[in-house]
Amino acid sequence: MLNMTALKVSLEKGTEAANKYALGVSLVIIPQIYIAFVLTKYITENPKILETLDKIGVVIFIFLSFYFYRESKKSKIKVEGLQSKKENPFLAGITLSVLNMFAIPFFCGTAVLLDSFNLFSFDFISILFFTIGSLIGTFYILYLYGKFAKTIQKKTGKLTKDINIILAILTALVAVFTLLKLIYTFLATS
């Protein structure tokens, strides 16, 4: 979702706006990694927290699905000369990154995986380097999406023209999948 939004921002507002968006997304990585590493052991010991995160995620993804669907009805992305409403791409990046329910579980899983292979320890230096690497990697990937947005659009054609409806469908599918997982878990424990 964040990658496709970087593509959308670049097509609508240009590369500079896409870079601001990428910076906003990247900066949110710092507290997400901190939260993930601080809570990794606690979360693995308390599965109720994961269930609560799933419930919150369903609500957020339903909201995002509705938002992107509504945006898709307003206007389609055009190939040339794009003008759109004055939104701050930096704040949009921060907002969408905060709403990204996959980041903290991803970083928790990564920490557990690296720790299980003795490739990571929970000391300050390891967390600092992991955070800096993640921040640079996230920014660079989103930067590349912004830089090559028109090339991607040419290669994918109509797909990028209907990006809001695609984002709406993706977030709706994630919400439905998570809801089904919660129902299955509830029925299995009952």
Would you kindly provide a written description of the structure presented here, covering whatever features stand out?
It is globular and about 45 Å long. It has helices at residues 2-13, 15-45, 47-74, 89-99, 103-116, 124-147, 149-156, 158-161, 163-189. The chain contains 9 helices and no strands. Mean pLDDT is 82; it is low at 77-84.
Ends: how far apart?
Answer: 34 Å
Query: What is the tally of helical segments?
Result: 9
Rg value: 18 Å
Strand content: under 5%
Domain count: the total is 1
Overall pLDDT level: 82
- The helix/strand series, from N terminus to C terminus, equals HHHHHHHHH
Low-confidence stretches: 77-84
Q: What characteristic shape results from the CA principal axes?
A: globular
Give the number of DSSP strands.
0
Helix percentage range: over 70%
